[in-house]
Amino acid sequence: TRLAIFASGAGSNAQKIIDHFKNSPLAEVALIGCNKPNAGVLNIATKENIDSFIIEREQYKKDGYTDFLHEKRIDFIILAGFLWKIPQPLIDAYPRKIINIHPALLPNYGGKGMYGSFVHEAVITNKEKQSGISIHYVDEHYDHGDIIFQATCDIVTGDTPDSLAQKIHQLEHEHFPRVIEEWLVGNSK
Ligand SMILES: N[C@@H]1O[C@H](COP(=O)(O)O)[C@@H](O)[C@H]1O
Known about the structure:
- By secondary structure, the protein is of the alpha/beta class.
- The protein is about 40% helix and about 20% strand.
- It has seven helices and seven strands, in the order βαβαβααβαβαββα.
- The chain has a seven-stranded mixed sheet with strand order 3-2-1-4-5-6-7, covered by helices on one side.
- Helix 1 (about 10-20) links the parallel strand 1 and strand 2.
- It is globular.
- The chain binds 5-O-phosphono-beta-D-ribofuranosylamine.
- The site of 5-O-phosphono-beta-D-ribofuranosylamine has 17 residues, from helix 1, strand 5 and helix 7.
- Catalyzes the transfer of a formyl group from 10-formyltetrahydrofolate to 5-phospho-ribosyl-glycinamide (GAR), producing 5-phospho-ribosyl-N-formylglycinamide (FGAR) and tetrahydrofolate.
- It catalyses: N(1)-(5-phospho-beta-D-ribosyl)glycinamide + (6R)-10-formyltetrahydrofolate = N(2)-formyl-N(1)-(5-phospho-beta-D-ribosyl)glycinamide + (6S)-5,6,7,8-tetrahydrofolate + H(+).
């Protein structure tokens, strides 16, 4: 089973997923797509000797790189900090085969513009007692599809958007690779 990871940032989740499936008989990370030419995740792809490509807005809007992904024999797509919405042609070509991780407890704190530090700032500003991560199927809306998994962390006095971001990254790195594996096993039955 060949996985593609789409990411826009540093790629710490991509690295954990790559490490998890490195010697796995179940699946391999075969391709990394990124819409930011200077993003750290592209350095990870080079270091790990994994095929990568730059996602250009025009072609992405046109066909979502669907033909290209089929040529690369990609079976499932993992969004790990990818900031662009998934276009309909790609959703149609990969029905319930695209999942995303969101750094908050959906359905709250999701949607357009709700990413990275903006999420944690909103959660802290609203004096929430808990936050967490959500792993969900991708549909035509931002942060909207059926939820596959959630995990929570407590927010204590003195927590800042940065300290919360650290707690969230820890949760992501702990759970995302394992949840992907369980999801793939479920899909192979
Ligand atoms: N959507 C969010 O973007 C961040 C990406 O971090 P990284 O995997 O690039 O380090 C993660 O917190 C993810 O939930």
